[in-house]
Amino acid sequence: MIERIFFYRLKTILRDKEMVFWTIFFPILLASLFRIAFANLGQTAEIFPIPTAVVDNEAFQADSAFREMLAAVSVDSGDSEALLDLSRVSREEAEELLLDGSIYGFIVPGVEMQLIVDESGLHQSILGLLLDQYLQASSTAGTVISRNPAAAEDFMRELELRTSYIRTEAIGKNSPDRLFVFYFALLAMACFYGGYYGLIEAFDIQGNLSPRAARINMSPIHKLKALLASSSAAVFIHLCSQMVLLAFMHVVLKVRFGAQLPLVILATLVGSTLSIALGIFIGTVVRGSENFKSGVVTAVSMIGALFAGLMLPELKYIVSERFPLINRINPVNLLADAYYALYFFEGFSRYSQNLLILLLFTVFFTAASYFFMRRRNYDSL
Amino acid sequence: MTVYKLSLKVMKSNIGPMALFLGIFIGISLLAASSGGNTAEQLFTRSRVPIAFIAEESSPLVAGLRTEVEKIAEIQPYDDDSEILQEAIFYNRISHIIRIPSGFTRAFLAGDEAAVITYTGQSEGRAMYVDLAVENYLNTLRLYRIFTPDMLLEEMISHAGKDLEQRSKIKLLTDIDAEGFQADQRDNYFNHLIFFNYQAYSLFAILILGISSNLMVFNSRLIRMRQACSPLSSRKQSLQLFLANFAFALFCWLLMNAVSLLFIPELIGTSSMYLFIANSFLLCFWASSISFFVAHLTKSRNAISAITNVISLGSSFLAGVFVPQYLLGAAVLRAASFTPTYWFVLANTQIARAGGTVSSVSSLASQNELLASFGMQIIFGLTFLAMALVLRKKRALAAA
After folding, report:
1. What is the dihedral of CA B70, B74, B78, B83, to 10 degrees?
2. From the CB of residue B108, how many other CB atoms can be counted at a distance below 10 Å?
3. Residue B247 has what pLDDT?
């Protein structure tokens, strides 16, 4: 009996092709779009060379060190990774260039070195830093040469031999990455779309809600058995769709799940089960039209994902720090956090803690839904 | 206007979930905007990042480094406990850790290989400035060590400190002090931008969700067949249906802008406000058209929310709603320019720029650009509306 219900449920669910299609493809589409959009975020390739101008005034002609420095970092030096695309112009021309947007700023050499821009931004900051470094080096050169005039020749050479005194290491297993906060939140949100499957289960098992449920209620099967059998079918289908997503993220997007793939799958299984239990819970306990219940499922997954950092990674931290309780019971965050903990921490305490809370939720929602629908009899359907 | 009235009636029956979503999306907008919103922007600004500074030895050199770093970063009192540090990085309480290994001073002064170890959290861009400060300090000392070996270490450190205080003067073309501008104007400028940019996600999402579930009722085959019998032409029916949904859209738009303005009262009455709101109205129009079109693509109620996410969130990612457009690559922006969201965000940026004190000189040029951005949005809106009407017509014929 149980396996019959299971297989018939599989068929029934798969018949809503649009829903199956969208639940599989919406996270894949979103993840790909995100990947495309942010592929070169933080990469410098498109920033350099920065179109810049320098005012060719007397001070500029007089300052050979400055001219050499600029020449060394501009495209004319033949360096393919040059910082600046520099043009030497008059003050009026420079202002025109800045106004029509063909340069980010121009330098006015003088006693007080000036950088003129028309708004602040990344490129302008870099130009500022470049000038700062030049001024700082000149100041050092002044002190050094006044103490040791013989050093003048070697100074420039040593200056260019800038040494790196920094070694970057990862503090956790992997470096924290905003991209991964997003991917894991998306994975978790997709998981909680299982709520819609749960909702359908709830409709198809309560005799007063759908003709199909009315028919099932005629059969002499125990309600809990029927519920478990049919919701297992939903979990199965939903888990399969999550596996497609995981595979896509792993293979195409190269999200590093690493050797812990089995643990990632375990977390996904727990998440899938909970999401369907949650959907059934909403479908049985919440009063209202089908539309309203479906709205509640949407709301839970959207707000949950928002607090888990899907739209804005910072929000996850703000909520976790200021309102810790919210994210301790936000199922979407708990799941996303479990993935992230696997990625970041060496140990498993955080991961297993999150999973435990998710399991408790699952048991609670299933039990609550069962107690709500058990021993229901209908006078007339 | 029978269809129009009927459609409004359907919406009324749907008022519960719609109120829920409206609340959620207004909440999302406010939360996002007030949480510092434009975080990618902050990533690259010289704001004081919270960091941990762990020194395994103490020396004048290390003390000098600490002072130097403190100029641009907020050093938080963390002890050398890797578990606590890991948590702090995980929760983004600190975005960077600097560790001075023991023996560093000796190795550095002897000219041997010496390295400060840094661990970076999520705000890599901001941490970059911290690393740069460390490198600048140590490299300046290196020069003193090489060329003035007779100088006392303390003296070198004080010289290096003075050298590193040298800053270029950054000025705006319009002669406003750059520092002051950055602090006040620019913050405002971005806050306004965030409020309105986020509408491209929140208003768009609620319109797709709302309009699709409203139209779901009319998409059922039986109702379509019944409507096909009516003497009212299908074009008129469709237009009335669109009008009713556009009325719903206008309501959402009004509410969202009213709430936005409540939170940015300083904008009220300025010319920027009218332009921002006009742009937001265009968003309302094309978002309704697209929603009207999308509503005809699916029959499954439960798929709506998935479609909503793909369209609203996806276009927002692509078009620079969550991060400034200039940080996205040129290729991405080219692709994004095929979405109306791109033009909406672009128009907002143009308004914010012209509205501030920045380039009032070039206002004429920017107005032409602005008109182009507005125009593109109108074209997108009309195109999707036309496509939706064609699709409806086809459906009606198929039903009959």
Report:
1. -120
2. 23
3. 94
**Pairwise pLDDT comparison (B1 vs B254), residue with the higher score:** B254
pLDDT single digits (tens) B190-220: 567 778 888 898 899 999 988 988 888 887 7
Quickly count: other Cβ atoms within 10 Å of residue A34's Cβ: 21
B233 Cα to chain A: minimum distance (Å)? 30
> For position B176, what pLDDT does the model report?
43
Q: State the Cα torsion A6-A11-A15-A19 to the nearest 10°.
A: 40
**Strand partners of residue A166:** B116
One domain for residues B134 and B47: yes
Tell me, yes or no, whether B160 and B67 share the same domain: yes
Asked if residue B54 belongs to a domain, the reply is yes
Q: Nearest CB to B168: which of A121, A132, A291?
A: A132
How many distinct structural domains can be found in chain B?
A: 2
Show residues of chain B in contact with A192, CB under 8 Å: none
**B324 and B225 in a common domain:** yes
pLDDT surpasses 50 at B177: no
Do the chains contact at B40 and A41, CB–CB below 8 Å? yes
Element (H, E) at A366: helix A349-373
Cα distance between residue A191 and residue A189, in whole Å: 5
Please judge whether B301 and A298 are an interchain contact, meaning their C-beta atoms are less than 8 angstroms apart: no
Six-digit token string for B33: 């905007």
Indicate if the alpha-carbon torsion angle B83, B86, B88, B91 is positive or negative.
Answer: negative
The verdict on residue B171 lying in a domain is: no
The span from the CA of B238 to the CA of B294, in Å, is: 14
Which token pair is A20? 């199956």
Same structural domain for residues B32 and B47?
no
For strand B96-100 and strand B49-55, is the pairing parallel, antiparallel, or unpaired? parallel
- Structural domains of chain A, with CATH: 2-39+174-373 (no CATH), 50-160 (3.40.190)
- Give the contacts of A118 (CB within 8 A, at least 6 positions apart): A98, A99, A105, B172, B173, B174, B358, B359
pLDDT tens readout for residues B60-89: 999 999 998 888 888 888 888 888 888 888
Quick check: B143 and A159 in contact, CB under 8 A? yes
Indicate if ipTM > 0.95: no
Do residues B290 and B379 share a domain?
Answer: yes
- pLDDT reported for residue B93: 81
From the list A46, A119, A140, the residue facing B140 with the nearest CB is A140
Indicate if the pLDDT at residue B40 is higher than 60: no
Q: Give the end of a domain, one of B164, B198, B214.
A: B164
Domain extent at residue B141: 43-164
The answer to whether A232 touches A240, Cβ cutoff 8 Å, is no
